[in-house]
């Protein structure tokens, strides 16, 4: 049986909206929570929206009242200091898990990322690993989900890259040889639905990855060719990418941070030792189709 009342912290983003639609269709009551949820445009019909900042434990506790299950979705890829990532990926995740436990929520899921590790180069990956530990401590039995890149309508990576390739004659590629394993949003939300229904992956960690491992630059070339765009891809050495990221700090809204460059040092692919979508009975579909 699906839990009746599900709260999605960070539920107005890309994965949260798709998950809301899936859960509503399965008959659940869905509450989405984010800083601007009450004024967010085009939320799925039927969700209830509540504005709250996950950094505020009182607001999170109030948002979790009467919930059977909760999913923690807030995350960031941009930040100037380690603490920018730490507060969302680790501190607020841990306190949200503790609030959920106190509120009697039966299931808690934390959205991490493939690549999360205390030894990772990027703050984003380091603090996701901290978040995983903190959540497991605050909410025994919580499930961690580590996605690779997720593709679907209104996604981030694919839409952004296609937009850039349409505008630029040459696209510099950071981490051209980094391996990624993109998955389809429908598989992502089906996995989350099954976990919310009570399926447990081995060690309470699920890796969400698609059917094929790609080198970053080959994936971009495939996306470009399928969209029939003319744009050259130029592999950028990391030192040059870092220099550009540092230089772009003078811009009011920097398009690239050093941490994003470091994020591309490590592969974002599933480890055969840990649970994957197949363990939930999901056969991952081609996310590029
Ligand atoms: N999409 C992917 O390809 C991908 C891949 C790997 C891992 N992940 C992880 O999966 C999670 C969800 O990804 P996504 O693509 O759905 O992200 P997203 O589109 O950026 O959505 C993030 C959500 O969190 C909310 N949020 C951010 N800061 C908040 C705060 N302080 N308090 C309350 N809400 C806050 C945002 O709304 P407001 O800004 O309005 O508050 C938004 O609803 C993230 O943790 C991400 O790291 C995603």
From TrEMBL:
It comes from the Bacteria. One of its GO terms (molecular function) is protein-containing complex binding. Residues 10-125 form the NAD(P)-binding domain. It holds the Pfam family NAD_binding_10. Gene3D superfamilies: NAD(P)-binding Rossmann-like Domain. Transmembrane segments: none annotated. This is NAD(P)H-binding protein. It comes from Wenzhouxiangella limi.
